[in-house]
Design brief:
By secondary structure, the protein is mainly β. 9% of the residues lie in helices and 54% in strands. The protein is elongated. The strands form 3 sheets. A 7-stranded antiparallel beta sheet has the order 2-1-7-6-5-4-3. Strands 8-15-13-10 form a 4-stranded antiparallel beta sheet, with no helix packed on it. Strands 12-11-9-14 form a 4-stranded antiparallel beta sheet, with no helix packed on it. The termini are far apart.
Length: 158
């Protein structure tokens, strides 16, 4: 089964399949630098990580800002929700109905962006719910074994 990956380059969104990525011929020449052959054309690429799933790629001297979207990001987008762009966290809501398998934080705990907050089982898959920004846990509205509906408040922040 073919998976697809999405990337946003500047304002343009592209979707690539695993077959298309397999056809890409890239050889690492130095740390963060690659020689790429694609459709009989040669490219020199320099990749600089700028943050979580965000990169600056210099391709044959031209700079591109790239943001990658994994399966979780695409699922959240399909559901009409968003987890990106939140610097100040007020609360975390369930992105889908499911069962809380474990709570990874405690009341009063300081958390950083990207830190695991809890694990939610949905459709027989374990989904790690991560903090979209830094903050301090004010209260936890669920316990291990709690069934939740989409949009239910799971964790509140100060």
């Amino acid at each position: 089964m073919s998976k697809s990956y999405k990337a946003k380059i500047g304002k343009q969104e592209i979707e690539l399949s695993t077959e298309q990525l397999a056809k890409l011929n890239a050889i690492s020449t130095q740390d963060g630098q690659f020689h790429v052959l694609h459709e009989s054309k040669s490219y020199h690429a320099i990749i600089e990580t700028q943050g979580n799933k965000q990169f600056e790629v210099i391709l044959n001297g031209n700079k591109y800002q790239i943001q990658l979207f994994d399966e979780y990001d695409q699922l959240i987008d399909k559901m009409g929700l968003t987890v990106a762009g939140a610097d100040k966290v007020t609360d975390i809501k369930a992105p889908m109905p499911g069962l809380v398998l474990s709570v990874e934080v405690a009341d009063g705990q300081a958390v950083n962006k990207g830190e695991a907050l809890l694990i939610l089982e949905a459709m027989k898959m374990e989904n790690v719910i991560k903090s979209p920004g830094g903050g301090i846990v004010k209260s936890i509205a669920v316990k291990q074994g709690t069934a939740v509906e989409k949009g239910a408040v799971l964790i509140e922040f100060e």
